[in-house]
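Q: Hi! First time doing this. I have a protein sequence and I read that you can turn it into a structure. Is that right? Here it is:
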Amino acid sequence: MDEKLNYISRLFQRTSSKRIEHYVISRIWHLLDNYDIKMVPQQYVSRQKIKYALTDVYFPQIGFHVEVNEPAHYESDERIQQDLKRKSEIEANTGHTVFPIDCRQNLDGIHSQIAELVSKINEAVEEQIEKGVFKPWRLEDEHNPDYWKKKGIISLTDEVSFHTIEDICLLFDADHSKTKRGFLRKSGIHNPKNPEQLIWWPSERPRNGWLNTFDEVKGTITETHSDEKKKVDYYNSRAQETHIRIVFFRYKDILGRTNYKFVGVFTNDKENSNAEIGTIWTRISETLNV
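A: Yes, that's right. Below is the predicted 3D structure, encoded as structure tokens:
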């Protein structure tokens, strides 16, 4: 099956239980009729401090979010004000634009809002094209280490992820055989181009007692262990020196496949890490030269 068809059909499948949202999102996609534009469902975005939000649809190339607001969003002044505050915080913290679709209106009214949104998306894309900065959606490139090696740089906005650990190693010309210890897989490998950096592929799924919690909004990973002694010993071994890790976090994509997504370059946070919490890794860069 065509990869983009597979991706978009799965996206629609995820919204099928919400019939109005499903209708609005599918109409946006079909009116755009541009396969170079990527549409991402359920995007995490920062609001303030520890708060975050999930927007219904995100267009990463142009920084547009869409919120499909069904009638329940307008059932009280308090709810309306909450949504307005949420929108304001998202835009202030990300520099993105949030477009709410008011679904209290009749079909013509909803269509009119969608038409305005589609027009703004097309204008933003055309503006980027004229400036020579538009990055067409190439699903096959997102997972191809050779493509990114030739490009020489990757960033969070590129939405780069790889299907296997072998693909990650290929990006750095690392020997993937060194990632294995008998039947077990190591959690990382040193970057052959810079031995002071560790290429790390953590997972939130517990593995051999190790637990990793990724806060996508704050840009931190808490690494700990279910065994108290191992947790403390590990923290003590990392507490004094500065360590750098290039992180590809393990997750399930919209197609249900395991992927390793580039989430940045991290260092151990000496101030906030401790023997009780474990080791906290903080993102220090959203870009990487390869």
